[in-house]
Amino acid sequence: MSENIIEVNNVSKAFGGVKANVDISMVVERGSITGIIGPNGCGKSTLFNSIVGYHPIDSGSILFEGNEISHLVVGDIARLGMLRTFQQTRIYGEMDCVDNMQISVSHRPGSQATMFASRRGEIRERAEQLLEFVGLYSKRNLISGDLSFGQQKLLEFAMALMNEPKVLLLDEPTAGINPTLINGLIDRLRRANEELGITLCVIEHNMRVIMNLASDIYCLSNGKMLASGKPEDLQNDPRVIDAYLGGH
Amino acid sequence: MTNEKILYLGLGIFGIVGPMLFPNYTLQIAMLWIMVLMASTWDITGGQMGYNSLGNITFFGVGMYVCAAIQVSMFYDLAEYTASYGAIKPVFTESQYFIGLILGIVAGGVVCVGLSLLLGLAVFGLRGPYFAIGTLGVAVAMREIVTTMDTVGGGAGISMPFLPLPIEYRSLFFYVLCFLLAVAAHFTIRWMFSTQFGLAANAIRDDEDKAEAMGIPTLRYKQFGWAVAAFYMGCIGAVFGNMSGYIEPQNIAFPLPTFGIFMVAMALLGGKGTLWGPVIGAIAFHIVKETTWTYLLDWQYIVLGLVLIVNIVYFQQGIMGWLKSMYPEKFGIVVDKSTNVSKGDA
Amino acid sequence: MFELLFVSAPIMNVQLLLEGIFIGSVFALSAYGLALIWGVMNVKNLAQGDFVIMGGYCAFAVYQLGIHPLFAIPVVIVFMFCFGWIVYKLIIKRVIDHDMFVSLLATFGLSLLLQQLLNLVFGPEVQTLDSQYGVFLLGDFVTVPKIKIISLVIAAAFATAVVIFMKRSRMGQAIRATAQDARAARVLGIDTDQVYAFTFALNAAICGVAGVLVSMIWSIQPFYGIIFSLRTFAIVTAAGLGNLPGVIGMSFVLGWFEQYAGVLAGAEWQIAASVFVLIGVLVWRQIQARRHRQVVR
Asked: Running along chain A, 248 residues long, what does each successive block of 10 average in pLDDT?
């Protein structure tokens, strides 16, 4: 069992002439909450997409639990135990919440979800428990497409938990959420990490959130890794402050 | 009694009693069950999974030919038989015929399952319209290939062995086969969609990228769904070949502009993506078609094309979709009145 | 046949290559039209081949009146343009925003309708219109009907005219702007509905011209349309949108492939050959996409 559940080594990715990621290296420790920050356009989402298999990388390597994954497709990587949530929140809009949850059960070998598992058994029970955990139990029979944006975000998070991932990559989980509800979301993220043992890697713009949540933070700027370390170090790092506020 | 039980009872009674009450229409009612099967199996990958195939008719024709080949070649040399253009009139004993038929039907279904898995490799990496066009291409290709194969009669086709039963039982025999296959298909589909399979299928339809990103092995589900459709289409194709007494590639085995598109039209009319939609659509379609066909004469297919277009453009949700929007509670859909006000946030 | 082509009479290859170019140029017209409406309004027109056949039958109708089919071209352009406009307003406009299978199925329904209408009006016989221009002889083995050369010239000239129109005219600019970003175009005052109608009508006119040429250099029949549509899709899928040289190149390749398949494997394999190309292109695209960790959308 390696200490680093994800290792990104010298990854570069360019789109045409735009160098989105240049020689990025970072690690995510098992069981930690790691944050990725940086101003708009610095390459955070590109890095995310490279890790989860959304596009090929130009050079470098990405290891998950010690194994190279940079050539695998999204589905294979998900089945290895790495999930991601989407910034625009993606759920199955025509199905109700419980069904959304049930189909999110893990499809890894050895899981209880065989192709023809019952929809009224243990899987359903677990789905309802997790809906309770995120506070959506009362909405469980509604069509998920009819929920509000914030509720859909919670549903997407619950679906990810249902899958029992080893690592969860979250793309701006607090974006678009009413500030009064952010604390609730943060609390649940922390509980997922501590109680369920899920490693989290979070892209975040909200400084208050990420500085309180993460144990390690990486800051990107202009496609390159600018700084990394503990939250209190980065908060006072002049380069980080410059990247956000100043010119480049 | 729930609405559904009433439907089952009604259809079941009609299925059993129909040919007794209307013996002259036995084959027409048999066609009805064939249409129900076609529409229902199309919907497995079509309405439920979002993989709208325009080429399911491929399996119909392949099943037909496999069955015919087995029926004839068990007792005669197939190439000689087809080359004689019907000069060789096979005489089968009852047991010869029935063994050949049963084997042929099963083989037709099984071969089609294998074919669907093979073809799936070529087409399941395609989304949306590419999949539709790809499957259409496959159907056209299959039709053309069969036309060139002289062993199975090429463009001239195969004259089918005659059912050695008294004439008054002939229609009834095929009717029973069609009805049983349609019932089997329906309950297979009903069971499949009552399990996780149904959820996976709908997830693939709603957002396949999300499904993949959640680790659902989408290819496996697509393969299984299409294999079930292929099996039943192959079986019914085999039966239909025997019913029509003569098979050939253009109009009987691979009738793209008729059955090939009917199955899609029926599922759309009744409401794709539902269990009963294709059934209701097939029944409505078949009844309307049978009653108006003779009056329309040359204009039959023109009217059909128009109906298809109007259906697609103006009535996409189909009958079931329309019913669901009118009476959502009756379908178990829960509408939360309190969230209707604003779509703010939690 | 194989032996003949490559050993004893290699000059026959010249014949086949020329035939491939002649018919390929017509394919290219149809493919350009499809790429146009696909790129601008994301409509995959399964009735494309039927538009072509319809153009051919217009020429046939003119021919019945004793007029030489070449003179049908201006008539066909106008007629098919109006037809395309009407089809857009009645059908395409209403399905353009819906999911892609709906628009595909709508055009498939249209294809069925056209096939059956043509069958009803003109009958199921295969027709070829005799241009009575005679043949041109290249050496001892290669005969080139003069009409095929004329057809190639017309196809090239027409295509060039359309391309110039797209580059220079206001409407052409509006079309290209809408293709890039419809919302931005609307914001800037372009009536996108008008643009879509024009584009679809233009496509119909292009197909009409292709049809007139097909009626003279090849043959038409009410049910040939769907094969033509599949060919056109194969070309556009292989070449990619916005790749005009690719479209032309792929059209010739398809033309050559069909000619060689017909000669080497037998006439009945010609249709199968073009469908195999379609399936081959689709499979190749998937393999390509997979290398980029994607699927073909």
From this structure: 82 90 92 91 89 91 92 91 90 92 87 78 91 92 91 93 94 86 88 92 89 91 90 86 66
Q: Is residue B33 part of a domain?
A: yes
B74 located within any domain: yes
- Tell me, yes or no, if B297 comes closer than 8 A to chain C by beta carbon: no
Please check the confidence at residue C290 and state whether its pLDDT lies above 90.
Answer: no
Taking an 8 Å cut-off on Cβ atoms, the answer to whether A54 and C291 are in contact is: no
Which residues in chain A have their CB less than 8 angstroms from residue C290's CB?
Answer: 73
With tokens 């989290």, the residue in question is A200
pTM, whole model, 2 decimals?
A: 0.91
Give residue-wise pLDDT tens across range B131-187. 999 999 999 999 999 998 888 888 888 888 888 888 778 889 999 999 999 999 999
How much of chain B, in percent, has pLDDT values that exceed 90? 54
What average pLDDT does the segment C143-160 reach? 91
Question: ipTM of the predicted structure?
Answer: 0.90
Q: Is residue C58 part of a domain?
A: yes
Run of H or E residues at B296: helix B277-296
Cα distance between residue A167 and residue A170, in whole Å: 10
The parent domain of residue B200 ranges over 2-254
State the residue range of the domain holding C163. 16-224
In terms of Cα–Cα distance, which of B238, B323, B145, B143 is closest to C223? B143
Which of A83, A116, A150 is facing B214, going by the closest CB pair?
Answer: A83
Long-range pairs, B215-218, Cβ under 8 A, ≥24:
B215/A75, B215/A78, B215/A79, B215/A83, B215/A106, B215/A107, B215/A108, B215/A163, B216/A75, B216/A103, B216/A107, B217/A75, B217/A79, B217/A107, B218/A75
- Assess if residue B99 is contained within a domain: yes
**Distance (Å, whole) CA C203 – CA C194:** 14
Q: Which of B192, B197, B334 sits opposite A142 (nearest CB)?
A: B334
Over the Cα atoms of chain C, what is R_g? 19
- B163 lies in some domain: yes
Q: Mean pLDDT, to the nearest integer, of B110-117?
A: 97
Report chain B's C-alpha Rg in angstroms: 21
The count of domains in chain B is: 1
The pLDDT value recorded for residue A245 is: 66
pLDDT at res. C139: 72
Candidate from B123, B129, B301 with C-beta closest to C112? B301
**Spatial strand order in the sheet of A82-84:** A82-84, A167-171, A199-203, A33-37, A216-221, A224-229
Would you say residue C8 lies in a domain? no
Any domain includes C263 = no
Any bridge partners for residue A86, and if so which? none
Instruction: Tell whether the model's pLDDT for residue B338 goes beyond 70.
Output: no
- CB-based contact (8 Å) between C297 and chain A? no
Contact at 8 Å (CB) between A5 and A199?
yes
Structure confidence at residue B336 (pLDDT): 61
Q: Of the ranges B138-152, C133-147, C254-268, which one carries the lowest mean pLDDT score?
A: C133-147
Please say if the pLDDT value at position C250 is more than 60.
Answer: yes
The predicted pLDDT at position A1 comes to 46
Minimum Cα–Cα distance from A69: chain C residue:
C293
Q: Specify the number of domains making up chain C.
A: 1
CB C295 within 8 A of CB A53: no
Task: Name C138's bridge partners.
Answer: C142
Residues from chain A contacting residue B189 (CB–CB below 8 Å): none
The residue of chain B with its CA nearest to that of A134 is: B346
**Is C31 part of any domain?**
yes
**Closest-CA residue of chain C to A53:** C293
Tokens of residue C211, six digits: 């049809």
Backbone torsion region of residue A213, taken as left when φ is above 0, otherwise alpha when ψ lies between -120 and 50, otherwise beta = alpha
Average pLDDT along chain C: 90
Average pLDDT over residues C76-81: 96
- The answer to whether the CB atoms of C106 and B312 lie below 8 A apart is yes
DSSP state at residue B251:
I
